[in-house]
Fold this protein.
Amino acid sequence: MKKVTLAALAQRAGVGLATVDRVLNERGGVSPETTRKILQAARDAGLNRILPEEHRQPWQIEVVLSGNDSFFFRQLASDFATVATGLGYRRLTLHRTFIPEDRPDRLAAHIIKCSKQRDGMIVFAHEHPAIFEALALCKARKVPVITLVTDLPGAERLCHVGINQLQAGRTAGLMMGRMLHQGGDVIMVSGRFDYSAHRQRIEGFRDVLQQQFPHIRLREVLAGNEQRDTISKLLEKQLAQSCAIGGLYNTGLGNTQISEALARHRILQRCIYITHELYATTRDLLAKGALSLTLDQNTRRHAQLSVELLLRHLDGGESPQTYADGKVEFMLYTEENYR
């Protein structure tokens, strides 16, 4: 029998020599469709060697996260690495990319690039036409995408993994209303409003207070846009106008700057202060009795669930429900249970 060369096999499969080499030597980085094509071509040609099993090819998964310096995304990136390590290199290869939140054009371009290189994607992104177009292209190329933390309603995605952000905001509002017995003004500090997560948190918080606690006055939302300097300046202006601040709710980063501003005006431990995530800064504030409550999203569960859902789809074609299958429960922490 005539010896089958890798070059001849590449020509038969209609791919490059390097791609054949990656498949036969199980180096990964080749789409499942191309892998199947090459292995079938090898069988048809009678290649005299033990062929790898298709299911042993590691899935190439791209995780795209925010490039801001918040604890949440640093921890989330670490949790994704831990989850991938636990599953093993033969199951998947995880690629992590951090893109600034103010560069939707760059994010869209990266998604399009990955649609040619990856088997699936897990993406943190905000609502922007270029990103919606990039996700539509992923679907056309049969590359499933899971949105993470903040949803993209109407986008072409496999499903969404995250907490119920509206419910989190409503919970924060309920706690604020029940703790702030004497009434007063409440300041709301929001992260980027082009992310549905922050809009939903503010919406839920505002709705509960307006409907159930009319004795509490809500100040205009401060658009911090995840910029620490902006948060400091806007908050300082608000605090300088009045000392009748009974509470403050922060939906995003900037808790160091907020606590410092409240301390300068000597109301840090007098006002009801509610925020999100449990990390070094919020732990310290809870220990000092300066923070009333923080709502934590559970980064590890985000990483585990999104990888599990994506692998189940890639391995067996399972189609998860848009929200129900990817729902993550949030946890409330006070000075009594944060340790």
DSSP finds twelve helices and twelve strands in the chain.
